Amino acid sequence: MAAGIAVNALGHADPDWVAAVSAQAATLVHASNVQYTVPQVSLERVTPTAHHVWRSPSASWRPPSRTASSSPTPARRPTRQAIKFARKFQRVARPDGDAPTEFMSFTNCFHGRTMGSLALTSKVQYREPFAPVMPGTTFAEYGNLEEAKKVIQSGKIAAVFVEPMQGEGGIHSATKEFLQGLRDACDEAGALLVFDEVQCGLGRTGYLWAYEAYGVVPDIMTLAKPLAGGLPIGVVLVTEKVASAINYGDHGTTFGGRPLVCQAALTTLDKIQKPGFLAEVAKKGENFKQLLSTKLSGNAHVKEIRGIGLIVGIELDVPAGPLVDACLDRSVIVLTAGKGNVVRQCC
Q: Does the keyword Mitochondrion apply (predicted)?
């Protein structure tokens, strides 16, 4: 019930995925970014259909063949790209030399483990062993709009990074008012709004993109984990406004856009976007939460059951580790989250 930490969205050995990856492996596994490949360009359709504002630039490729970036650093390199793109945008937008360079993220957040993304990750145990990390990040309380506004209005913030739903942080959902308030504050201050949908995107909430549940569109969105159905990939989507500041050569990666991974991603997208798929995710999620509520009713250690779609957490008043171990003894794989007192399921 952990899907490889929110990765194997189609399960294990999905026959369509296996057939597509096998066929691509027999055709072309890797090519450099000097040329484009058909799977790479075809993956442009990862841009959300609900809002026609997205580009998926990796400046390794010449426009107009901008496409997704397949990351050799599984799941979290898109945060580093987003940091770079935000700083480049601000430099272009303010050529007089006073471009903001700092960032804001939130308590309980998780944006990755590379040196740049570590600086945006709030959990001290992840950052301290590698200190000093990149300076210039302020953490505000998740959900506290007034506190966030004060930081944004300082004029020092290049971009605000936020998860519409926190996974690692304990399955906490943002409110529409919070996200819309961040959107308005960023617009007023000239900062960019970045949604990290690495864990909550690609259908897991019952929406293709978690932000669709709120009707708030960011300037940059990061994707990874489930997109390629089990192979490592990272994608950064940006609005046309941000894309206009990015040039060929601003970003590059040896394994970016490799055809094998892009074909895997195309197959995963095909299945998630089939009629009825997302509705089934939402239905199963509601049924699962109702079942948990029934089965755990009256259990003194259960504080709350929460989540959207098939990303669900059970908050306990005791450490969840022993329960996770007991589940594993019974061949059920679940994970902990938050401060170690949340059992999470993310399929």
A: yes
C-alpha distances in angstroms, 270 versus 10, 18, 94? Answer: 11, 14, 41
Domain encompassing residue 312:
2-7+276-346
Phi and psi (nearest 5°) for 165? -135, 125
Query: What does each C-alpha distance from 138 to 166, 179, 244, 293 come to in angstroms?
Result: 18, 17, 27, 37
Is the separation of the CB atoms in 153 and 115 below 8 Å?
no
Round the average pLDDT of the chain to a whole number and report it.
89
Same domain, 78 and 146: yes
Question: Do the strands 137-140 and 157-162 form a parallel or antiparallel pair, or are they unpaired?
Answer: unpaired
CA-closest candidate to residue 231, choices 60, 31, 14: 14
Is residue 63 included in any domain, yes or no? no
Tell whether 341 and 300 lie within a shared domain.
Answer: yes
Query: What tokens does 65 get?
Result: 């063949």
Which one, of 242, 246, 195, 243, lies nearest residue 222 by Cα? 195
Q: Which of 231, 229, 235 is nearest to 198 (CA)?
A: 235
Checking if the pLDDT of 136 tops 50, the result is: yes
The rounded distance, in Å, linking the Cα atoms of 44 and 55 is 8
pTM of whole model > 0.70?
yes
Same domain, yes or no: 28 and 83: yes
